[in-house]
Request: fold
Amino acid sequence: MVIKVRIPTPLRKLTSGSDEVTATGANVAEIIEDLERNYPGLKERICEEDGKLRRFVNIYLNDEDIRFKENMDTRLKENDELSIIPAIAGGAL
Amino acid sequence: MLSFLGIGKRVVHISKSAYDEIINHARESYPHECCGVLVGSIYTAPRIFESHRASNVNTERAHDRYILDPKELNLIDKMARTQGMDVMGFYHSHPDHPDKPSETDREWGQPGYSYFIISVRGGKDVSVRSWMIEDENAPFREESIKINANG
Reply:
């Protein structure tokens, strides 16, 4: 199924500036594989080598963090929307 | 040297209301770090029209670290889009520390955003500088902040 994916600023160099793209897949992992086919380099910015989500990135399915669902195996349905959300952190020390 | 003199820096515009609000948030949160999201648009330069407070979910080390609640960022991002705007950057405070990025800030810094850092000394005296990273492996570079009184 075709899903809309929100792309954050740091990754838009890889999508020719697009802030929203579409990808096909039945779960989050398949969507990321499809994104990589169309926008090479995107997967390594989202996933570690073992396929797990990098700590600098969160993925939201509609309003829920996929880490609190079934992570990369989270299944998708019609009209779902994925958002790649950067992890924003730091501090004085 | 040119950069030291303020020449060659990228300019980031911010409305006075948003600028005042992030300072208020930093003072109110002292001695803890506050954080939030800066929303606006890019014309010839980035322009920040709104600031949105967000929760610092690093409650164990709130005095010297922050983690911006990603759930709130997701909602603010969606809201900005419906208004034809985008997330331009983020702000956080450094209680009793300088308005410069720390090593932790650099470790977590992401390219393309303006990072406003508000130094709050003794809960009262403040200074603000903005920083950005060009690409993933680059250091933070300072931006010139231009405050716009009329939005």
Remarks:
- Strands of chain A lie at 2-6, 20-24, 57-61, 64-65, 81-86, 89-90.
- Residues 2 and 91 of chain A are 39 Å apart (CA to CA).
- The first helix of chain A runs from residue 28 to 38.
